[in-house]
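Contributing new complexes? Match this layout with flavin-adenine dinucleotide.
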Amino acid sequence: MPKNIVVIGAGLGGLTSAALLAQKGHKVTVLEQGDWIGGKSRRIEVAGQVIDTGPSLFTFPGVWETFLAKYQELGGKLPKDLEFIRLAEVGRYFFRGDQIDIPVPESHQWHKPWQKFVAQHKALEGPITTLLTSAPLDLKALPALGKLLNVYGTRLSTNNYLNSLSWMPEGLKDLIAIHTLNAGVSPDQTLPIYASMTAIMSEQGISVPRGGMNEVPQLLAKLAEESGAEILLGQRVMSISKHAVKTQERSYSADVVVSSLDASLTDALISGKTAKMAPNRSCSGVAIYAALKNPLPAGTVTHSVVMPDDPADLYRALKSNSSPNQTMSFVNYYEPGHIYSNKKATVAVLLTAPADSADYDLKTPWVRDELDRVSNLIGLERPIDELFEDFKVLNANYFEGFGALGGALYGAKNPLWQSGPFHNPSYRSLTKPWLYRVGASVHPGGGIPAVMGGAMNSISSLI
Ligand SMILES: Cc1cc2nc3c(=O)[nH]c(=O)nc-3n(C[C@H](O)[C@H](O)[C@H](O)COP(=O)(O)OP(=O)(O)OC[C@H]3O[C@@H](n4cnc5c(N)ncnc54)[C@H](O)[C@@H]3O)c2cc1C
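Output block (do not edit by hand):
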């Protein structure tokens, strides 16, 4: 029987759910508090140039393909799919005075161990995609789980697993381990699967849709609307109950509620109590988006990763929610006409930051120091912000405005045993069978593959 379904939030989690549920024939209304589609994946203009904020790299394309296949199975017609442009490298990493591209080139001393590592993880690409798109404890996922256990054995964290690889140089371990920050947590708090992700990304490559990342939520919204879903912007949900979702303006009756909000915010809207900041939280970011007066020097790659000299020190700072001495930064650089049809070059400098609600800007001492360090390491003669024509800074305070308290990008940080199939919260609870949870705070990992996979898993019984 078609149901009245209210989806809360028009980010990637909400839109993935809305497209599939509407295509299945349910009556779907999406309520979004902001005035844009995409949540953290937002499109802005800086000095007349189009820049997408939030996610910048598209990984694990098998999850996207699984979504499209499900949409078609339900009878949906696909418009032209996105054109994914594979970047020449996974990234150029700057670490302790060295500069290393991934995949590690033959000329680098780490080439052999890197090749060995990639070879050991090659067979896990399919199983990881299966696990990302399978409900917890789904029997069909057991063979995939078996393949992972064959590689990791009893090593339960990324750190434990990497430390067991006696043949691997310590620096290479650090470089692989830092990728757990893409899930907002340190490598002692994540499953070993995160180590494999680096190797798989190196094989599969990373990509960006032509036109930019915001093309992803735009296409999802189009599929949802073409399937009959109604997407209402500027509708802030004030309370959620078994039969109704209330905004400031009106009440929407609902047989089912799909919430893509941070789990703590969903709970607060149900209980009527004020949401509490989780003591242990995933990281936030200071994200600086700029249009440049002139392109960066020739040879600057699209995606650079500037590592801290002492990753352990950064993990400690993030755990105690204090400012780091040095952090891990992404520098995403687009030449004019690359990916976007911009006339000017643009850059995003994304500094990993504590989830402390702060309103940091370029004058904040640790941000200033990091910008200078990043500029120097990527080979600029002047601080990068001297090349900005105009810029915009998004920080923990901004992310808190529509997400988890503190600005934690992936919500609360759960104990290790809850970072797999037993994740907390679960997609559904026994006491509230009408509530389905999706979004970055639910499926471990929190990036686009986890959010889209998690949404498909959560609502599977409804489609
Ligand atoms: C700087 C940055 C870089 C990133 N880089 C990558 C990357 O390269 N690759 C990758 O895979 N992932 C990346 N991520 C993660 C990825 O962006 C997120 O995991 C994903 O976008 C989260 O989607 P979501 O639907 O869970 O949440 P959101 O996008 O936060 O959506 C939730 C929506 O709910 C709305 N909302 C909140 N409260 C209410 C309310 N009361 N009523 C109505 N609506 C409400 C919000 O406005 C928002 O639109 C990055 C994130 C950031 C911030």
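Reviewers usually confirm one structural detail per submission. For this one: The radius of gyration is 21 Å.
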